[in-house]
From TrEMBL:
This is NAM-associated domain-containing protein. Pfam families: NAM-associated. It comes from Puccinia triticina (isolate 1-1 / race 1 (BBBD)). Residues 1-12, 25-41 have a biased composition (Polar residues). InterPro entries: NAM-associated_C. Residues 1-60 are annotated as: Disordered.
Length: 161
């Protein structure tokens, strides 16, 4: 209860002081001045100050040391990440080129193997003994021999031109 009365009395004192201050404040009547009435009254620069700027970038605080250090670390990590990606892309490109070389070599090898197989088949047909075969088999081998000879003639004529 004692605290309440003290608190209550202090609020009463404050209220009385504020009433006295209001009574002492100037009235709407202006005191006589020495300035002639034809001159305009000077504007109050403090009352016209707005306190807020239109450009937010002007009002930003400068970056502190910790934040600047953090920004530098983030930028370094970003550059490191970009360098890693570039290195990986370079490795992928070189591996792809190597793979393409292997494939082209393999395809060349496969072509040669195929040509060797065809040549071996042609040689077996050309070297076949037709004496102990029936007439149909002999006719088949004769036609095949003609085809082989014709293709060889075409190849040699195309190489010469």
């Amino acid at each position: 209860m004692v605290v309440f009365t003290r608190l209550n009395s202090s609020t009463r004192v404050k209220a009385e002081i504020s009433k006295r201050k209001r009574a002492a404040s100037p009235t709407s009547e202006h005191p006589p001045s020495n300035v002639p009435e034809s001159t305009p009254a000077p504007s109050d620069a403090v009352s016209e100050f707005d306190g807020t700027g239109t450009d937010a970038s002007i009002l930003e605080r400068p970056v502190g040391k910790k934040k600047a250090k953090l920004l530098n670390q983030i930028a370094a990590k970003d550059q490191e990440w970009k360098a890693d990606v570039a290195c990986a892309q370079t490795k992928i490109a070189s591996e792809s080129e190597r793979f393409n070389d292997i494939i082209s070599n393999d395809s060349l090898s496969l072509k040669r193997i195929t040509q060797n197989g065809e040549t071996a088949a042609e040689l077996t047909i050309m070297n076949k003994n037709l004496d102990n075969l029936d007439s149909e088999q002999q006719e088949y081998y004769k036609l095949k021999r003609k085809e082989i000879l014709q293709s060889l003639r075409n190849k040699t004529s195309s190489r010469q031109t």
